[in-house]
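Q: I'm a student working through a structural biology exercise. My instructor gave each of us a protein and asked us to get a predicted structure, then write a short paragraph describing it. Mine is Beta-glucosidase. I'm not confident about reading structure output yet, so if you can add a plain explanation after the tokens, that would really help. Here is the sequence I was given:
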Amino acid sequence: MTASFPPGFRWGVATSAFQIEGATTTDGRGPSIWDTFAAVPGAVAGGDTGEPAADHYHRWPADLGLLGDLGVDSYRFSVSWPRIQPSGSGRAEPRGLDFYRRLVEGLRERGIEPFLTLYHWDLPQALEDNGGWRSRDTAARFAEYAALVHERLGDVVDHWTTLNEPYPCAVAGYGEGRHAPGAKEGDGALAAAHHLLLGHGLAVQAMRARATPQHQFGIVLNQSPAVPVTDSAADAAAAARQDTLLRRQFTDPLFGGRYAPGLAAMFDGVSEFAFRRDGDLETIGVPLDYLGVNYYYRVHVADAPHREPEPALRTVADIGVDTSRLPDVPRTGMGWPVEPEGLTEALVGLHNRYPALPPLYVTENGCVYPDRSDFADYERITFLSEHIEAARTAAMAGVDLRGYFCWSLLDNFEWAHGYKHRFGLIHVDYATQARTPRASYRWYRDFIAAQRLG
Ligand code: IFM
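A: Happy to help. First, here is the predicted structure for Beta-glucosidase. I'll explain a few features afterward.
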């Protein structure tokens, strides 16, 4: 691999609060929708919950040591909203803010740049009880919460990400019911997507009002380009619908100044989009300093009948596509097709589509494979090196790419899959909380060191 990333390119790893922290009732933390959802029998594999996760809430000093030894210059993590506002609004819980302050100060002592994400799916349950992201009020609450965190940490954090992946929040959470809060709706899920974007825009405005010049504001989107399984017009149209739902529903308002063309027609009879108000597009389209791209796989799409013929009864995920016909390529332990070229395609595609696109980071990329007893995860090393090469190809093609974050530092709670699937460069024994770096940890450490030598 040629060492030709731009000067100053950042190398990091990513985690999120609910997936690693545990300590779900400690220091005044309130319940989140994922605590509630995980308690529903059958919702999460193995009946797993946010306990113990990787007990990072107590073991963060040792985890900082592992980050330091890895040699990353940047660390992407999220703040747990229910630690800061246990019931979703009102004054901040100082113990929650103090935890993140200690973490960030520890990062800075090691010369690691904190990339803070405000929302990685753990909505305070109290807000869900008032409608959750279906409700416009949640967008306003999110901006208040963002301002509280920004006020307390603005002197030690420069990179502020509002949302991680609003697509699964809205579609898996409010449409398919696979994620918290477990709803299966049409209009409600489309409203959730809109209010997530609105909350993002309001939060950036609130933080920017008191920002210093070095503060950067961004959002993270998952990008899975849709590929039609044949060259038929019907499959091409199905792929376009898939891209509209997963990508353009978010990227067009954020970077194109408009709602995605085709979205309203796709959901004719499902939603009247009455939740859109004058001025929302301007708020959502607030200029950003960066866009984070999470890439894992492409979606292969065939045209198919709607599962529910009656539009008024359809969920948001029922868009007349079949995504089960996978290509004949290797798959990860989660069954996801390994297609590094999809990362190049995602980055170059964004660059070509949106002239006003801010600089990009790859903010998540990683994989799961069954472990060997010696944690020699050669498949992960191959996966990461091929995807880093795909990112480099995009940078060479003119994409303003500023960094790459591997998902994830530690094994963690993989949402509805529970603890079964392990994404970590570091193995976590959940019974003892012992950390064991995998071979990929050493590979990434050596790779980063080699990049610095040029
Ligand atoms: O674990 C998740 C993460 O929380 C969001 N992006 C995808 C990862 C792997 O599924």
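A: Here are two points you could use in your paragraph. Residues 2-453 form a domain with the TIM Barrel fold (CATH 3.20.20.80). The chain has a mean pLDDT of 98. It's a good idea to check both against the output above yourself.
Q: Great, thank you!
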